[in-house]
Amino acid sequence: MEEEKKKRRRWRDIPLATKMILAVGSIMVMMLVINMILYEQVNKTIRRMDTVYSSNVDLTDLSASLENVQQALYSYLSVKTSDSLENYYRCEQDYRYLLENLSSQISSNPTKLLERNIRQMSETYLSLTGEGVAAKRGRNVEKYKEIYDQSQELYGYINSYIYQLNSQQFRNNSSSYQALREALRYLEISSLVLMAVMMGIGALVLFAITKGMIEPLANLAEIAHLVGQGNFDVKMTKTDSLDEVGVVTRAFNTMVESLGEYVVRTKESMEKEQQMMEKELLMKNHLKEAQLKYLQSQINPHFLFNSLNAGVQLAMMEGAEKTCIFVEKMADFFRYNVKKGLEDASLGEELTAVENYIYILNVRFAGDIHFTKKVDESIMECRVPSMILQPLVENAVNHGIRNIDWEGKILLEITGLEDNILIRVKDNGKGMSEERIREVLDGCMEDTGEQSDSTGVGMNNVISRLELYYDKKNLVEINSPGENMGTEIILTLPRTGGEK
Question: Where is 371: in which H helix or E strand?
Fold first, then answer.
């Protein structure tokens, strides 16, 4: 038992790089051995395929040797020379040597039966040719001619049998060749499967070997993640290994112990500071919301009463149609004020409120308000604080063109830029001095009696609400060339709404 513990301890003490080299080296050796075995099997099959048609080659050689015997016999019988006789005996010997490869046993196998018949016929044929040679040497012309004719006939039969055997062997060899090709293909597939299996086994072995190295590191990463989340009660399992993982584990546990109390104290301090900041931010938000609601709630009742009186007068002077339109415009205007008082609105809704306001004024003042607009229809759905356009137009009416001796005109222009919305309200009225412009922009302008006939939402209100809505300064610009030269108010608003 102690020896096994020492062995495990020695393995854990091996450096990680050495462990990886041992694991990868073992897998490479295993793959090399398997490749060598598969290579030998493939070569063996290929060698067998190379010898498939050797029997057809032997039969071709046998037929050629038989033809040589017949030609040598004819040469000797035609011209009696020692060279022709010697050639005959040499051809006969070669033919007998090739006949030894044929079977002489009785068998039901057609191939073996053909080989036996060829061999027996060849023995008879060689006996006849031997008798023919002997008759030639004895000068018995009639006999060797008769024997030559018989040998020629038997030669044809043997050639016919050899051809049949060769054809049958070719068919058999073709089948064997196809079988070997299939076996080779099967061997290739088997080799691929075996390689895949061995690679899988190698991967499993490598996984099993590396698991013992990676698992402690994964555990360390998990524990480190918990520590990073503020849990200092967790520690790595103690280990006595001397490899890199063991060293890191012991150092990590020491670090966690030393940081625990310090982080707890720091966390308590940060929590207290965060609570104070949240309270301060909440107070600021409540203050902004109260200011915004207060500014949006200011509507002067004088305007409502004067407008309704004008509606009564119009009803007395004209028929019901214009009165209906007037009352409808009044209803839409005040409905928008009540509905949008605490909300933002689209530019399209703001423009409708301005048009209703101009209509109401023209009814009251017999069409003296000459109002034109130039708007970018593509930005009509952009959100802005409610009740910002109508007060600008109202300011142009009350402080610009009212009580002037020439025809008063007001132009409203809304343009969409890349990041901003540009709004211009321009009149040709009394104009403003630089001092008054500074008072308006600084929020120091006091209300006057002229505003008793207004909605009560003045320039100070608009500027304050814009700054609260977008949390940004310098959104309003006022330009006036001089006295009786008109005034232009420019709003440059971000394309996206401010914080609510």
Answer: strand 370-375
Rounded-to-10 torsion of CA 341, 347, 349, 354: 90
> What's the pLDDT tens digit per position in 342-385?
567 889 989 998 888 888 888 777 667 889 999 999 999 998 88
The DSSP annotation for 113-152 comes to HHHHHHHHHHHHHHHHHHHHHHHHHTT-HHHHHHHHHHHH
pLDDT tens by residue, 453-466:
566 567 888 888 88
Could you report the per-residue pLDDT of 147-186, keeping only the tens digit for each?
Answer: 888 888 888 888 888 888 778 777 776 776 677 677 777 7
- Neighbouring CB atoms inside 10 A of 274's CB total 10
List all residues 6 or more positions away from 322 whose beta carbon is below 8 Å from its beta carbon.
314, 363
Side-chain-side CA neighbours of residue 318 (13 Å): 13
| Token pair 């086994």: residue | 201
Amino acid in the structure at residue 90:
R
Q: What are the strands of the beta sheet with 420-427, ordered from one edge?
A: 370-375, 409-416, 420-427, 487-494, 476-479
Question: How many angstroms separate the CA atoms of 359 and 371, rounded?
Answer: 10
Cβ within 8 Å of residue 241, ≥6 positions away: 9, 12, 13
Nearest one of 135, 7, 157 to 73, comparing CA atoms: 135
Q: Burial of 406 by CB count in 10 Å (0-12 exposed, 13-18 middle, 19+ buried)?
A: exposed
* 393 Cβ contact list (under 8 Å, min separation 6): 354, 357, 358, 371, 410, 412, 425
Q: How far apart are CA 266 and CA 329, in angstroms?
A: 64
Contact 284, 468 (CB under 8 A): no
Q: Which residues contact 105 (CB under 8 A, 6 or more apart)?
A: 112, 116
- The 10s digit of each residue's pLDDT in 70-112 is 888 888 888 778 888 888 889 989 888 888 888 777 777 877 8
Residue type, 98: L
322: tokens are 């214009």
SS3 of 298, please? Answer: coil
What is the residue whose two structure tokens read 């104070």?
276
The single-letter code of the amino acid at 152 is Q
Distance CA 474, CA 466 (A): 10
